[in-house]
UniProtKB/TrEMBL annotation, chain A:
Protein name: Fe-S cluster assembly protein SufB
Residue ranges annotated for the SUF system FeS cluster assembly SufBD core domain, each copy included: 212-453
SUF system FeS cluster assembly SufBD N-terminal domain span: 126-204
Family: Belongs to the iron-sulfur cluster assembly SufBD family.
Automatic annotation (TrEMBL), chain B:
Assigned keywords, A-Z: ATP-binding, Nucleotide-binding
Family that this chain belongs to: Belongs to the ABC transporter superfamily. Ycf16 family.
CDD domains linked: ABC_FeS_Assembly
Hydrolase in keyword set: no
Protein name as annotated: Fe-S cluster assembly ATPase SufC
Protein's UniProt keywords contain Amino-acid biosynthesis: no
Gene3D superfamilies, per the entry: P-loop containing nucleotide triphosphate hydrolases (3.40.50.300)
InterPro entries: AAA+_ATPase (IPR003593), ABC_transporter-like_ATP-bd (IPR003439), FeS-cluster_ATPase_SufC (IPR010230), P-loop_NTPase (IPR027417)
Length: 482, 250
């Protein structure tokens, strides 16, 4: 059978050209702007997906068309024009630059501060590489190790080709296509993402994606991740990169689904550092993410996140504690500076008996930013002896930023034990002077204070990631105090 | 070492220091006493470079260099240390981590590499023994939940770690029990040499029995109104400040 080619695609779209307006002969790898059923079909076709997947996407698209963009979050922005976006862009194989000299020096300086190797710097900023980077061969080696244990770790497109039954069985089971506006959009048009399956009783021997993360840079705006931990298995999954990403795409709407079957455990750690816009609040990424995990009996899911990037963030990694004795955890650091806005938190849905959840949220606001925690703890009537502990701490720098806490509790079972603690503090001049007096300059003092404030969450990150995350916090707050 | 001439300082347009003259030479111990609110802590903060206080007149030189324009951390790098009257809490930052940062930042300012972990540990062990500090204490968050006495002892531990040229101890004795006072004072005495100097701010003669001053100054209303030898401290202990106030107002 002939492969679907660029030309087919072009032909297919030409007929509709007038509907989307002006269609210039841009790189053949990019679709024209706009969204309709044909585009959805074209994406699916392009990715050589099975028929059921195309239908699944279309279902999502039809639902999305009838939905309206949510407005309840404590963020303000000009809504994206969804018909002005191009929904498919093949991974660009053409290097953007010929050498590092052409890359924005400011970006390189940040790379250096983060301690990112030259090879990684090249890869991240899209510089052509003449040597095969070590990490690529490392990746191959590790893929082999994983394969021996029966672990599947690949792109979701590959999974759709190689393991369609697994994908079909689980995709959309935790975040249904119609879950919300952005999830529906993602379901219709997702370009790629990761797929991971850990077989029964297998403990994944390494932090997944550590060795692959550099390859993730530049993954599209609509990422789809599906992680399945079969009974009694364990996996720690790392997502994102501390390196600043200068993505041109304004809108990012990812979906992450985690499934922890009986006695399984998934640790999912994220570091997000997308372009937050400039100091005047121009530009920056809109990050509207749906992340949710499902715990069966005795299963455990921990979300740990360090969020420093994006202009607008809307993100609530959640746990559905369906099985008895299952455990959900959410550890979060969200930093906002300048004009950034973040509305983030979690939902812990207790369905099973003796389910337990822990929420530790640390919000750090500087500049003119707004940082909101929004959390829901829901105890259903059957969830006997459910327990939740929530702690939300806010740290303010300066007088122009805001920290807000919106905890919602719905307890429908009398035996529930729910504890909520919240604090708000400011970095005091006295604290800074104390540090200064010991020879620590103001910038370093702030980093020290912020790290201390965030420690409980930083401690939850895998060691290597924690060190990077710490540096990232420092960099994100640079220049936030005069 | 430290030379202060006609120093005037104010906060929010309120004059607090109104013409201080003080010279401290290497090897000397000076005590500053004076009623509450007379400006002792303000003087200490101004020497240390707290920006909140505006120097409106006068000069401060440290080892011959005008330090008036220097930031607080730069003064610290040059060897100025202040033991705070009210040490602040920094949650989540352990005493050890704080000291490690302070020492390495100071070294960095001098163009030196970070202190090797091994040396750092040795230094911590040595100094915590000197001040009879339990090592477990050092892994606690800086000053968080410390008792009044523990905070003060921790200040002197930091001084021991940083080995400053000029140490200003602002009411380090308040809050210390009798044994702790002895331990802390002994610590200070051990760190004293002919190359460094100490300014002790205190309300009580008691501390000066241990850390014996060469000079005692009385600060009142933002000025040093009387200076003398260590006998002056005894006299104040006996008679209070009224006679001095009368002298000034006369
Ligand atoms: N930041 C400030 N804002 C307003 N007033 C201040 C400030 N700092 C000091 N003062 C005032 O300046 C005066 C001197 O204060 P300072 O703390 O120097 O006194 P002190 O001699 O150390 O007193 P004590 O013996 O009680 O410690 C006081 O009247 C105090 O209220
Ligand atoms: Mg005082």
């Amino acid at each position: 059978m002939n492969k679907y080619t660029e030309d087919d695609l072009r032909e297919e779209l030409k007929t509709k050209e007038y509907e989307y307006g002006f269609y210039t002969d841009i790189e053949s790898d990019t679709f024209p702007v706009g969204l309709n059923e044909d585009i959805v079909r074209a994406i699916s076709h392009r990715k050589e997906e099975p028929e059921w997947m195309t239908e699944w996407r279309l279902e999502a698209f039809r639902a999305w068309e009838k939905m309206i963009e949510p407005e309840w979050a404590n963020v303000h922005y000009t809504k994206p024009d969804f018909q002005a976006i191009s929904y498919y862009s093949a991974p660009n194989s053409k290097p953007k630059y010929n050498s590092l000299d052409e890359v924005d020096p400011e970006l390189l300086a940040t790379f250096a501060k983060l301690g990112i190797s030259l090879d990684e710097q090249k890869k991240l900023s899209g510089v052509a590489m003449d040597v095969v980077v070590d990490s690529v061969s490392v990746a191959t080696t590790f893929k082999k190790t994983l394969g021996e244990k029966g672990i599947i770790f690949c792109s979701i497109s590959e999974a759709l080709r190689e393991h369609p039954d697994l994908v079909k069985k689980y995709i959309g089971t935790v975040v249904p296509q119609k879950d919300n506006f952005y999830a529906a959009l993602n379901s219709a048009v997702f370009s790629d993402g990761s797929f991971c399956y850990i077989p029964k009783g297998v403990k994944c021997p390494m932090e997944l994606s550590t060795y692959f993360r550099i390859n993730q840079a530049g993954t599209g705006q609509f990422e789809r991740t599906l992680v399945i931990a079969d009974e009694g298995s364990y996996v720690s999954y790392l997502e994102g990169c501390t390196a600043p990403s200068r993505d041109e795409n304004q809108l990012h709407a990812a979906v992450v689904e985690l499934i922890a079957l009986d006695d399984a455990e998934i640790k999912y750690s994220t570091v997000q550092n997308w372009y937050p816009g400039n100091a005047e609040g121009k530009g920056g990424v809109f990050n509207f993410v749906t992340k949710r995990g499902l715990c069966e009996k005795n299963a455990k899911i921990s979300w740990t996140q360090v969020e420093t990037g994006s202009a607008v963030t809307w993100k609530y990694p959640s746990c559905v504690l369906k099985g008895d004795n299952s455990v959900g955890e959410f550890y979060s650091i969200a930093v906002t500076n300048n004009y950034q806005q973040a509305d983030t938190g979690t939902k812990m849905i207790h369905l099973g008996k003796n389910t337990k959840s822990t929420i530790i949220s640390k919000g750090i606001s500087a500049g003119k930013s707004q940082n909101s925690y929004r959390g829901l703890v829901k105890i259903s009537p059957n969830a006997d002896n459910a327990r939740n502990f929530s702690q939300c701490d806010s740290l303010l720098m300066g007088n122009e930023c805001g920290a807000h806490t919106f905890p919602y509790i719905e307890a429908k079972n009398k035996s529930a034990k729910i504890e909520h603690e919240a604090t708000t503090s400011k970095i005091g001049e006295d604290q800074i002077f104390y540090c200064n007096q010991r020879g620590i300059d103001t910038e370093k003092a702030i980093a020290l204070i912020v790290n201390g404030f965030s420690k409980e969450v930083l401690n939850k990150l895998p060691m290597e990631f924690a060190v990077e995350a710490q540096k990232l916090l420092e960099i994100s707050l640079e220049g936030s105090v005069g | 070492m430290l030379k202060i001439e006609n120093l005037h300082a104010s906060v929010e347009d309120k004059a607090i220091l109104r013409g201080i003259n003080l010279e401290v030479k290497a090897g000397e111990v000076h005590a500053i006493m004076g009623p509450n609110g007379s400006g002792k802590s303000t003087l200490a903060s101004v020497i240390a470079g707290k920006e909140e206080y505006e120097v409106t007149e006068g000069d401060i030189t440290f080892n011959g260099e005008d330090i008036h324009e220097l930031a607080a951390e730069e003064r610290a790098h040059k060897g100025v240390f202040l033991s705070f009257q009210y040490p602040v809490e920094i949650p989540g930052v352990s005493v050890t981590n704080f000291m490690k940062t302070a020492i390495n930042e100071t070294r960095k300012a001098k163009g030196l590499e970070d202190m090797p972990a091994k040396d750092m540990l040795k230094l911590i062990r040595e100094k915590s023994e000197l001040l009879e500090i339990d090592r477990k204490f050092l892994s606690r968050s800086l000053n968080e939940g410390f008792s009044g006495g523990e905070k003060k002892r921790n200040e002197i531990f930091q001084m021991a770690m940083l080995e400053p040229k000029l140490a200003i101890l602002d009411e380090t004795d308040s809050g210390l029990d009798i044994d702790a006072l002895r331990i802390v004072a002994n610590g200070v005495n051990k760190l004293k040499s002919k190359d460094n100097a100490v300014i002790v701010i205190t309300h009580y003669q008691r501390l000066l029995d241990y850390i014996v001053p060469d000079f005692v100054h009385v600060l009142y209303n933002g000025r040093i109104v009387k200076s003398g030898g260590k006998e002056l401290a005894h006299e104040l202990e006996e008679k209070g400040y009224d006679w001095i106030k009368e002298e000034v107002n006369a």
